[in-house]
Every structure is written in structure tokens, then in C-alpha cells.
Design brief:
- With 713 residues, the chain is an alpha/beta fold.
- The protein contains 27 helices and 27 strands.
- Helix content is 45%, strand content 24%.
- It binds ligand C2E and calcium ion (2 copies).
């Protein structure tokens, strides 16, 4: 608060003596000069007025008879000016006046009328008393002026404060409101006056009875009551978030002061940050955290409603290729587009989220039957699986969806998400573009898969993988053509595990790329090491899984390894399956083209079991067809299989391709194949996959005519 400043009262007061006669002035000065005041003397009315203007005069001794302007005239003029209106005047007169003129003097403000000659002692007393009185009057006047300005100051503080301020009496009635408060409540100050505070309070909820409210209670106990997240109900029907504090005023005032701080900016900012944290920036959908939260809320509600709900886990098929071949910006654009499409399939209260990458989840709330979720899944798959065009490039995407229903497939957020994820995985295994409901068996399988996956990771770390080499023999001559490298897992407890069991898992978990890099390095360096012994035409066949084939870096990796180990590319044969080729024709063509430029050979593995589209034999440049061993093992009994095998051999001849028969176990099979002019064989008749030592000891040329199945083992 401002300090009040009173003019120093210790200053000497000024006594003004007005007389036209010089000798009177000298006498007065001598008479009064030793008093508790300063004496000023002037010899005319005009000079008196001038002095009064310049100085604060406490008392005027005024001669009545003066030429030009007499004392009465001076007094009248003094009374006309606000500055001198209340300055006391004592008239001095040498002649006796009529009662009338004396009264006239009093009427214009004289406080005394003294006749000359007078008793100086009495005059000095009078002067002292009058000056004292005048000093008090002056102080009072100053005080009241300062009070006025003080009041105006306080009012302007309240008027201009941006916080809302209310004074509330002990009955909860508003006694004072500042303009900011009125503005916050969207009304006028007058609207608030005498209304009840509780009628504006939306939150915290208060009892209807004021005396039960926290405001009253705190006031009674002399405490300040604070609420950081209160909400006011405004006069226009809206709501305003505020922070409140309500403090008691001094006891005798029986009231409290409430200050309200507008929090709408802060809480908007808060809401904005909150929403950023749960939103996926790319698509504007919920992100993982947002989905978790929504699912949690839904779970807490559904217990009461008894309705069902389902969590859908959707993974795009083929998105990675889009990303790899068209770039991330294009990938982002596709994801945004897909998000928009997915939205159109759902009801407004269903929740859609992007969990990251090309994975989306949906929460279908209040379903009548689980089948409703299946219908949505079908719709989603259908919607995603269309041809897209971006920058002139056409491509197709697909979607695999897993569904987990509450409560059968999980009662918690994590449980439901895990189940839906597993079911999605099943859908992918089943050949993509499908949906699967989660089932308990899936759970069991998933668990053992999880264990297997875990031990695979350790196997990679501990180098528990080895390669074995299966010889490939030229049928006509019995000469060693090369080896196919086959992967073995030497499990420390379970013994050797066949790749049929773990390769698919390595594929799914993408661990294949790590193991694959190791296989390539191992195989290529081995083939090079064998050169002195088997010559520069020995071939090494490497299996390349569909995932590996889809890797954009495949060719680059092979080139680097061939360079590093100084192996001719033509000594390397890459075995790919038909399904790897059929993934995406454009990418396949590109990949094959690059392999070809690198100079490695390309073989189709398990030929005849897959799509066996003759078209790709025409489209792609290949070197070798490997007839699947199922046909070989049946061909001597089944005429159909025999027909297929001989047809493939013929096809090979016509297209100039080498044909390898896999899984040859008997001499009869060998002889049949030789009779049908098959070029190469591979199988237990000669050898299974051999550990390095045995493979190194393998003869480059077999005694083929006298060959017996147990020849080597
Ligand atoms: P695949 O490429 O068709 O390999 C031939 C499979 O047939 C091998 O099984 C081999 O041991 C087996 N086999 C060879 N001769 C005979 C025979 O006369 N009779 C019978 N019954 N079987 C014979 P394996 O080693 O268990 O490999 C299974 C599959 O695992 C392979 O099929 C291949 O697709 C995959 N694989 C093996 N090694 C690798 C690898 O290093 N990388 C990748 N990506 N896949 C591999
Ligand atoms: Ca193979
Ligand atoms: Ca094969």
C-alpha cells in the first residue's frame, strides 16, 4: 500500500501583515518577530494577494483602511479563491466601526476584529491559537485528499487487475466483484452483485448448503481454501477452467476475498500437449499410448455395460516393399491414405490407432456378436487390398488381421493386445490377406514359439549353427558338380535340429538376415578354400529364403563377399523358391536382373510344388531347375509323377536350363533319370549333407558305373 505523505508540520507557519503605513509594519514586525512563526509584511492589498498566491500563509493581519483596495476588498477576493478560502483573517482598524461594518467583516470571513491600539500579548496569543487551528485544518484537508487518492488507487487496482476478485460475505453472497471477474463470468459487475457464489461453481462439486461448503469451513477456521482445477459456469452457459483461492478478510468484516485465475490458456496448452502425446503425428490417429489409454477406459466401462468388444490388430502386407522401392516419403503418404480409408470402415465411437510402422489397431466397442468383428475385418481387408498408384508406380497392398474378443481372449489391455497380435501372426502364416480369431491353442503354440525364438537368439550369439554340404553329381559322368550348403542347428541339449523347423521362424522374426549373412560368408569362403582341391568350376549352391530375396541389399552383400574372398561369381548358385519369385513381380524382375549382372547362377528350388507358372520361365533368365524330391520319390510308382518329372526335364532342355533331381535315394531312380536325360542329381544315394571334414574328403569323380548306395557310408 502507498504511504501517506503529510507536509512537514515542523516548517514555520507564515504570518502575513498588511498595512499601508510603513511605520505600522515596522512596529508589527518588532512586536511579533520573536513568535513561533515567520512574519511577512506588505503595504497594499495587491501585494497581499500576490504574496498569498506565492506562499502558504497561515494567518493574515489585515488593515481595514487602505487606499485603492481596502481590507474588506482583499478579504472578499481571498474568499473567492480556493487556495485562500479558509485562511483565517484578523482585521485591524484604527477607527471605531459601526456594528454594521464589523458584522460585514465577520460575514466575509474574519475571525476577529481588533481595534488599534491593542494589547500585544493578547494579540500574540490569538495569533498562536489561530495558527494552531489553521495547521490542524490544513493537515485534515491534506489527509482527506490523500484518502481520496488512496481510494481511487485501490479502486483502479481492483478495476485493472486481470484476476477476478470477489468479496463474499459469510452467507456466500457476493458483495463486491471487479470487472475482470464479471468478464470471466460473461456478465456485468451489477449482475454479480448480491448473487450467490455457489451458483457459478461447476467444479469442485459443492453441497447446496453454503454452510456445508469448503469455502465456509475454511473461512471459519481462518484458512485459505485453494482449488487448482476449478470450473466456473458462466452466465452465457459456458464453462471456464480457473484456479481459485479464497482467504478470510479480517474478522470484523465477516467476509472473504476470492481470487480466480483464468486457466483456459494453460489448460488448452495442457490438453494440446496431452493430445500430442497420444496422437500419431503421421496419420493423426491415436498412437500406441493413446490406444492403450482408450482400451483401458473402455475396459473399465464395459464391466458395467455387459456388452462385448474386440481388438483388431492389422498388419499391412507388402508395405515394406513400397517403402524400400519408393522411399519413405511415399511410404508415409501411403500410410496416411490407408489411415483415411480405415476410418471409413469404423463407426464413430470405434477407436483406430497406428501402433508404429505399418501396424494398426482398432477397438470395436459394444458389439452384439463376435461375428460383427469378423465382418469389420473382412471390410478392412477388402478396402486395403486394392491397386494403388503413386508417382506413376502401381502396386498392391494387403492386410492380415488378428482379432481378440473381450473377455474370452484377455481381460487386460496387454492380454488383449497380445492375443490380437498372435492371431494376426496366424493370419499371416495362413497366407496373408486373411483374418484370424485368437484361440487358446494359438496361445500354446505361441508360447513354444516364443521359447524357440528365444533359444534361436542365443544360438546366433553362441555360434551354434553349422553348414553341411550335400554333393551334386553330374548324372552322365559321375563328376562332382558342386555342393549345396544346408544349415544345421547344433542345439546343446536337443541335438541337431533340421532347418525345416527353424527356418520359417527365422524368417518371421527376420533373424534370417543375421544368420543369412553368416551363411553367405561361410559358404563363399569355403568354396574358395576348396578351389585347389576341386578346381575353379566347383559350384556352391546357397539357399535364399523369400525374406532374404526381398532384401534390397542382397546383391550388394553377395558382391562384397565374392570380392572379399576372391571367388568367381559364376561359382555361386542362388536357390530361390517359386514363392519368393511370386511375391512381387516388379521387385523380383529387378532383383534377378541385378543377380544376373553380378554373374551368379540362379536356380529355382522345389520346382513343381509352387505356382509353377510357365510364364515366369519366359520372363526371367534362369540357369537351373531343381525338381522337388516328392516327385522323385514317387515317380517310379506313380505315372503322373513320372510324367511331371520327364516333362520338367524336357522343358529344361528346350529352355537350355540345367535340371537337378533332388532326393535321389535309389539306383533305380538314378537310372530312370539318366535314361530320361536329366543332367544332375542330389540325394542320399550319394550323400546327405556332409560336415565340412567329410565334404572336403569327397572325391571329385565317382566310380559311377559301379556305384552302390552304401558306397561311402
Ligand atoms: P531344400 O533346399 O529343398 O533342401 C533339400 C532338403 O532335402 C535338405 O533338407 C536335404 O537334407 C534334404 N535331402 C537331400 N537329399 C535327400 C534325400 O535323398 N532324401 C530325403 N528324404 N531328403 C533329402 P534340410 O537340410 O532339412 O533343408 C530343408 C530346407 O531348409 C531346405 O530345403 C531349404 O529350403 C531350407 N534350408 C536349408 N538350409 C538353408 C539355408 O542355409 N538357408 C536357407 N534360407 N534355407 C535353408
Ligand atoms: Ca535348396
Ligand atoms: Ca529343394
Amino acid at each position: 500500500m502507498r504511504q501517506m505523505h503529510l507536509e512537514s508540520v515542523n516548517d514555520q507557519q507564515v504570518l502575513l501583515v498588511v498595512d499601508d503605513r510603513e511605520e505600522n509594519l515596522v512596529a508589527m514586525e518588532a512586536l511579533l518577530g520573536d513568535g513561533d512563526w515567520d512574519v511577512r509584511t506588505v503595504n497594499s492589498g495587491e501585494d497581499a494577494l500576490r504574496c498569498l498566491m506565492d506562499e502558504d500563509v497561515g494567518l493574515v493581519l489585515l488593515d481595514v483602511q487602505m487606499p485603492r483596495m481596502d481590507g474588506f476588498e482583499v478579504a472578499r477576493l481571498m474568499r473567492g479563491s480556493p487556495h485562500t478560502r479558509y485562511t483565517p483573517i484578523i482585521f485591524l482598524s484604527a477607527i471605531a466601526h459601526t456594528e454594521e461594518s464589523v458584522l460585514q467583516g465577520y460575514a466575509i470571513g474574519a475571525v476577529d476584529f481588533i481595534l488599534k491600539p491593542f494589547d500585544p500579548k493578547v494579540l500574540k496569543h490569538k495569533i498562536g491559537a489561530l495558527l494552531e487551528q489553521e495547521r490542524h485544518r490544513h493537515e485534515l484537508q491534506q489527509l482527506s485528499q490523500q484518502l481520496d487518492s488512496e481510494r481511487a488507487f485501490n479502486a483502479s487496482v481492483l478495476d485493472n487487475a486481470s484476476e477476478g476478485i470477489l468479496v463474499i460475505d459469510q452467507d456466500g453472497v457476493i458483495r463486491f466483484a471487479n470487472p475482470a471477474m464479471a468478464q470471466m463470468l460473461r456478465g456485468e459487475v451489477a449482475d454479480l452483485q448480491d448473487s450467490r457464489l455457489l451458483s457459478y461453481l461447476k467444479r469442485p462439486e459443492m453441497p447446496g448448503d453454503w454452510r456445508e461448503s469448503e469455502f465456509y469451513r475454511s473461512w471459519r477456521s481462518g484458512q485459505t481454501y485453494r482449488v487448482h482445477d476449478a470450473v466456473l459456469a458462466t452466465l452465457d452457459g459456458g464453462y471456464l477452467p480457473v484456479a481459485l483461492s479464497c482467504s478470510p478478510l479480517p474478522q470484523y468484516q465477516n467476509s472473504m476475498v476470492l481470487i480466480a485465475l483464468d486457466m483456459s490458456v494453460v489448460s488448452n496448452l495442457h490438453a494440446q500437449l496431452e493430445s500430442q502425446a497420444i496422437t500419431d503425428a503421421l496419420t493423426g490417429l491415436y498412437n500406441r499410448r493413446g490406444f492403450h489409454q482408450s482400451l483401458e477406459t473402455a475396459l473399465s466401462r464395459i464391466d458395467r455395460s455387459g456388452k462385448r468388444m474386440a481388438v483388431l490388430y492389422l498388419d499391412l502386407d507388402g508395405f515394406k516393399r513400397v517403402n524400400d522401392s519408393l522411399g519413405h516419403a511415399a511410404g508415409d503418404q501411403v500410410l496416411r491414405q490407408i489411415a483415411e480409408q480405415l476410418k471409413t470402415c469404423l463407426r464413430p465411437y470405434d477407436i483406430l490407432a497406428r501402433m508404429g510402422g505399418d501396424e494398426f489397431t482398432a477397438l470395436l466397442d459394444s458389439l452384439d456378436h463376435p461375428e460383427d468383428a469378423a465382418r469389420v475385418a473382412e471390410k478392412l481387408i477388402e478396402l486395403v487390398s486394392v491397386r494403388y498408384e503413386l508417382d506413376g508406380v502401381e502396386f498392391t497392398l494387403g492386410a492380415s488381421i488378428g482379432i481378440a474378443c473381450y473377455p474370452e481372449c484377455g481381460q487386460t489391455v496387454d492380454g488383449l493386445l497380445r492375443s490380437a497380435d498372435m492371431a494376426m501372426y496366424e493370419a499371416k502364416r495362413a497366407g496373408r490377406q486373411q483374418y484370424r480369431f485368437f484361440s487358446p491353442e494359438m496361445n500354446g503354440r505361441a508360447r513354444s514359439r516364443l521359447m524357440l525364438e528365444e533359444s534361436l537368439r542365443t544360438a546366433i550369439e553362441q555360434d551354434d549353427f553349422v553348414l553341411v554340404y550335400q554333393p551334386q553329381i553330374d548324372l552322365a559322368s559321375g563328376r562332382l558338380r558342386g555342393f549345396e550348403a544346408l544349415l544345421r542347428w547344433e542345439h546343446r541339449v536337443a541335438g541337431t535340429i533340421s532347418p525345416g523347423v527353424f527356418i520359417p521362424l527365422l524368417e518371421e522374426t527376420r533373424l534370417i538376415n543375421r544368420v543369412g549373412a553368416w551363411i553367405f560368408n561361410q559358404g563363399i569362403s569355403q568354396c574358395r578354400a576348396w578351389q585347389t582341391q576341386f578346381g575353379e568350376n566347383l559350384l556352391l549352391s546357397l539357399n535364399v529364403s523369400p525374406v532374404q530375396f526381398g532384401m534390397p541389399k542382397l546383391v550388394e552383400d553377395l558382391r562384397r563377399l565374392l570380392d572379399m574372398h576372391q571367388l568367381k561369381p559364376s561359382q555361386l548358385e542362388v536357390e530361390v523358391t517359386e514363392s519368393a519369385l511370386m511375391q512381387d513381380l516388379d521387385t523380383t524382375r529387378e532383383q534377378l536382373q541385378q543377380l544376373r549382372e553380378l554373374g551368379v547362377r540362379i536356380a529355382i528350388d522345389d520346382f513343381g510344388t509352387g505356382y509353377s507358372s510357365l510364364a515366369y520361365l519366359r520372363h526371367f533368365e534362369l540357369d537351373t531347375l531343381k525338381i522337388d524330391r516328392l516327385f522323385i520319390s514317387n515317380m517310379l510308382e506313380s505315372r503322373k509323377d513320372a510324367a511331371i518329372v520327364s516333362t520338367i526335364i524336357d522343358l529344361g532342355h528346350h529352355l537350355g536350363l540345367e535340371v537337378i533331381a533332388e532326393g535321389v535315394e535309389t539306383l533305380e531312380q538314378r537310372d530312370w533319370l539318366m535314361a530320361h536325360r536329366c543332367t544332375t542329381m542330389q540325394g542320399f544315394l550319394v550323400a546327405p549333407g556332409l560336415p565340412l571334414e567329410q565334404a572336403s574328403a569327397f572325391p571329385a569323380q565317382l566310380d559311377w558305373a559301379n556305384w552302390r548306395p552304401d558306397k561311402l557310408f
